[in-house]
Design a protein that fits this description.
- The complex is a heterodimer.
- Chain A is α+β, with helices and mostly antiparallel strands.
- Chain A is about 20% helix and about 20% strand.
- In chain A, helix 3 packs antiparallel against helix 4 and helix 6 packs across helix 7.
- Chain A is globular.
- Chain B has three domains: about 100 residues, Immunoglobulin-like, CATH 2.60.40.3670; about 180 residues, Rossmann fold; about 80 residues, Four Helix Bundle (Hemerythrin (Met), subunit A).
- The longest helix of chain B is centred in the last third of the chain and has 24 residues.
- Chain B is globular, with a radius of gyration of 23 Å.
- In chain B, helix 2 runs parallel beside helix 7 and helix 10 packs antiparallel against helix 11.
- In chain B, strand 14 and strand 15 form a beta hairpin.
- The chains are: A alpha+beta, B alpha+beta.
- Chains A and B meet through loops of A and strand 17 of B.
- Bound molecules: zinc ion (2 copies).
- The site of one zinc ion has 8 residues of chain A, from loops.
- Chain B: This is VWA domain-containing protein.
- Chain B: InterPro entries: VWA_3_C (IPR041176), VWF_A (IPR002035), vWFA_dom_sf (IPR036465).
- Chain A: It comes from Planobispora takensis.
- Chain A: This is PPM-type phosphatase domain-containing protein.
């Protein structure tokens, strides 16, 4: 690999020529449609819908996915072709028998009626035609587990819907987690986060299977997610948008990719050792490999000289927010985003621990890695994720909250 | 209908309600743009020109009225159906001589002018009868843009019951713009006509301006491209529309005009439309919800009753929050137009108190009105108020002017329905969940 950092607008650019900054004119984007992740990489047939249906009993629908992937996504739109005959009357997504909510548009399926007044019809915008209540969607509170990892996403207390999305995939000995936070000032932000999380996880696994190294796969996935989100917007004035952060947790390293202000943390289980000369202290954010920040020598594991992954010990922030000022993003996914800078960092934990991936609904209340660490030290990943979400809700729940907890186990020596 | 104006509906509101809150306010801006003028030329139009011919119109007034009616006839587009009615204690069609309306062309315009020359001033004033005759004549053209101009110089001699019954009979069948000339007519009576028949009322201070004013009214009517548009408002079960008022360009309360479309939905008529913008203030009451819950408090659609076509739609939402910073915010549009409605009330109360000899109340109301008019950018109304109430530049104390021209008082009374448009404030947070063109 060359520079750790490049501009991505299309997956092709990300895969083939990582150094090229590509900005597609709006007219060149695909028309808005349900994005199909498979289209964005060359290996479509390899892992159909890997991040899609797994994690539910029906995962076996797709042969490849069934044996390979133990995965689930919180806000998934199943591929349209995957349908078992029935389709959502609102968005056309395929619907499995017995499902209460459409996975495509998140609205209750017919027959479900209104959660407040019973069998009243719910209109296509999601409002009860009798009492007017906006129906809670499946993503209001979602929990997911894959491999040994877990995720929880919650609407919070102040928002009427959950515009965060998450995807978690465990396959081939790696775990992939993606968290996306819909930009609430954009139209239909929940469609952006949902498409980005699903596409990111799927493309990342596909890229690994086609032989890409973790950094390239991470970058390709972010590019694929960017393309999927861009396709949801018809113009810069109608541009669903979201943040993106992915974590690829393998047996010897952790690879993080992001755009925006959703974060990843390393919460090492090992006690904090004394600072090692040449690295930052353990309490502050890790030096983030990012060629855009020409502020001096950086530990750049993926730079041309390839010094290797950044070693990790005690709790540390692995990402650097893309913000102009607090709350004002400088990078996001969306047709209005222009040139998207994909940040990628590669890390080598020196002991066991967990990778925490989250939206600002969590870190807005609990920011320091050292303060997050106790939550994951004792509990199972699912209990830890729940406890962190509960903490954010108890602190006010002003925003949607999404937390993924992915354990890292170093290989036996 | 392929070619018709493009209607948009923009909704400005703060959807956040405090715990237990039930009342939602929203400002609906309806704009018709596009091919209105071109389309209007192909739209059937029917016009009745009603000229007061009561005894008080004698002298120069009847001469000016004849000329104004003639100018109106000349302004009619070829093919428009029309008639001229002389109003006294009776309603008399003076042209055409045969039944019904007649198509405008060179010959009929000339014949109408001839008939107008015979118009004499004699008799009383029965506005309800005049309107009933207009309704009867226009009933033969149900698909047309139907309109009447009404000119009067005196107070109606009919009882309130008779007058109200006539207005109710005519409501929804045509739009009427009325004008008062001289200082012996009652602005409140013409305001009633304007409210019931979805038109305007106005004051012609100088009879010599009648001709220009009539010509302008006809030109505006000739620009109407859609005969009737209704605001269709759905509210949830156990909710209701508390009020729906037009707030721009003039104030007019539509609340009482609701026609039920289904148990949860009512249609409110708005009359005919050319290329124009009108603003409405909707207030709905809904059952209180839990913090975090969101409901659609009103689903607003703009419909053409003749075709059933939905021209635009939008949601008025309510979401409960315990965050006072959110729930106490008032949307700029709601604040502005609430102020304009208050201005109208202050002027009406002030003028009423002044007429009743309660000068303290009159001074207080009109003084506050003048300050509010100035603050809200309603310069026209501020100027009218300045003729009636003066404010000491040193002490800020309001004082009624000792002698007020009767015409100035009528101008203020009539003009108080005109509101100032809100200064454009693009990108205001909290504005609009529901902008949508037809589709
Ligand atoms: Zn659906
Ligand atoms: Zn309901």
């Amino acid at each position: 690999m060359t520079a750790p950092d490049d501009a991505v607008a299309t997956p092709e650019a990300g895969v083939g020529e990582p150094d090229d900054a590509v900005t597609l004119p709006v007219a060149a984007r695909r028309p808005a449609a349900t994005p199909e992740a498979g289209e964005s990489t060359p290996d479509t047939g390899d892992v159909p819908d890997a991040g899609d249906t797994a994690g539910t009993p029906e995962a076996g629908d797709t042969a490849d996915a069934a044996d390979a992937a133990d995965a689930s996504g919180a806000s998934d739109a199943s591929g349209v072709e995957a349908g078992a005959g029935e389709a959502c009357p609102r968005c056309g997504s395929s619907v499995h028998p017995g499902e209460f909510f459409c996975e495509g548009c998140g609205q209750p399926l017919d027959g479900a009626g209104c959660v407040r007044c019973g069998p009243a019809p719910v209109d296509p915008e999601g409002y009860c035609e009798l009492c007017g209540l906006r129906q809670p969607s499946e993503s209001d509170h979602a929990e997911t587990e894959a491999g040994g990892a877990a995720g929880v996403s919650d609407r919070g207390l102040r928002h009427s819907r959950n515009e965060d999305a998450m995807a978690l995939v465990a396959a081939d000995g790696v775990t992939i987690g993606v968290v996306c936070d819909g930009v609430s000032s954009s139209p239909r932000p929940e469609t952006a986060s949902s498409a980005a999380a699903r596409t990111g996880a799927t493309v990342l696994l596909e890229a690994l299977r086609s032989g890409a190294d973790p950094v390239t796969a991470t970058r390709t996935a972010l590019a694929g997610a960017a393309t999927a989100v861009a396709a949801l917007g018809s113009s810069v004035d109608d541009a669903p948008a979201c943040t993106y952060v992915s974590a690829l947790v393998g047996t010897d390293r952790v690879t993080i990719g992001w755009a925006g202000d959703s974060r990843a943390y390393w919460l090492g289980a090992a006690p904090t050792p004394p600072p090692v000369p040449g690295t930052d202290s353990d309490t502050g954010p890790m030096p983030v490999p990012d060629s855009d920040s020409d502020t001096g020598p950086m530990l750049s594991p993926v730079s041309g000289s390839d010094p290797g992954p950044v070693p990790l010990r005690g709790p540390a922030l692995l990402t650097e927010d893309d913000v102009v000022s607090p709350g004002l993003l400088s990078a996001w996914l969306g047709v209005d985003a222009g040139r998207i800078t994909a940040h990628v960092g590669e890390f080598a934990p020196e002991g066991p621990g967990v990778v925490l991936v989250c939206s600002d609904g969590l870190w807005g209340y609990l920011e320091e890695a050292a303060d997050l660490a106790p939550f994951t030290a004792r509990d199972t990943p699912l209990e830890a994720a729940r406890a962190l979400v509960r903490h954010a809700l108890a602190a006010g729940g002003r925003d949607n909250v999404t937390v993924l907890v992915i354990p890292f186990h170093p290989p036996p020596v | 209908m392929s070619d018709q104006p493009l209607f948009t509906l923009d909704i400005d509101q703060n959807k956040y309600l405090p715990t237990g809150g039930r009342e939602i306010h929203a400002i609906l801006t309806v704009e018709a743009t596009g091919p209105a003028e071109r389309v209007a030329a192909d739209v059937e139009a029917a016009e009745v020109i009603i000229v007061d011919a009561s005894g008080s119109m004698g002298g120069s007034k009847i001469v000016e009225a004849r000329q104004a009616a003639q100018a109106a006839v000349e302004t009619l587009r070829d093919g428009t159906y029309f008639a001229v009615v002389a109003g006294t204690h009776e309603a008399t069609k003076i042209y055409p001589h045969r039944a019904g309306l007649v198509r405008a062309d060179g010959r009929t315009r000339k014949d109408a002018a001839q008939a107008l020359r015979g118009l004499r001033a004699d008799g009383g004033t029965a506005i309800g009868k005049w309107l009933r005759l207009a309704a009867e004549l226009l009933a033969d053209h149900p698909r047309a843009v139907r309109h009447a101009i009404l000119l009067t110089d005196g107070q109606n001699n009919e009882s309130a019951e008779v007058f109200d019954a006539a207005l109710a009979h005519c409501a929804g069948t045509f739009v009427c713009d009325s004008r008062g000339v001289g200082t012996d007519w009652a602005p409140a009576e013409l305001r009633k006509v304007a409210d019931a028949l979805l038109g305007t009322s106005g004051f012609i201070r100088d009879a010599r301006d009648l001709t220009d004013n009539f010509r302008m009214m006809i030109e505006s009517m000739m620009g109407k491209a859609v005969a009737e548009v209704a605001l269709r408002v759905w509210t949830p079960q156990h909710g209701r529309v508390k009020h729906l008022k037009q707030v721009s360009p003039t104030l007019s309360d539509l609340t009482g005009m609701r026609a039920a479309a289904d148990p949860l939905t009512g249609d409110y008529p708005t009359g005919s439309w050319g290329a124009e913008t009108r603003v409405y203030h909707l207030c709905v009451e809904v059952p209180a919800g839990a913090v975090g819950q969101e409901v659609r408090g009103a689903w607003v659609r703009l419909v053409r009753p003749d075709t059933g076509e939905i021209l635009a739609r939008g949601n008025v939402l309510a979401q409960w929050t315990d965050d006072l910073a959110l729930s106490t915010r008032v949307s700029p549009g709601v604040a502005h137009y609430t102020g304009q409605a208050e201005l109208f009330d202050l002027i009406q109360e002030g003028l009423g108190a002044r007429a009743a000899g309660d000068l303290d109340t009159a001074t207080a109301r009109l003084g506050r009105a003048r300050r509010l008019a100035e603050e809200s950018g309603n310069d026209d109304t501020a100027k009218l108020l300045a003729k009636v109430v003066e404010i000491d530049s040193g002490t800020g104390t309001a004082r009624l002017r000792r002698s007020v021209d009767k015409a100035d008082e009528i101008a203020l009374d009539t003009g108080s329905v005109r509101t100032a448009r809100m200064r454009r404030d693009p990108g205001e947070p909290g504005s609009s969940d529901g902008r949508s063109p037809a589709g």
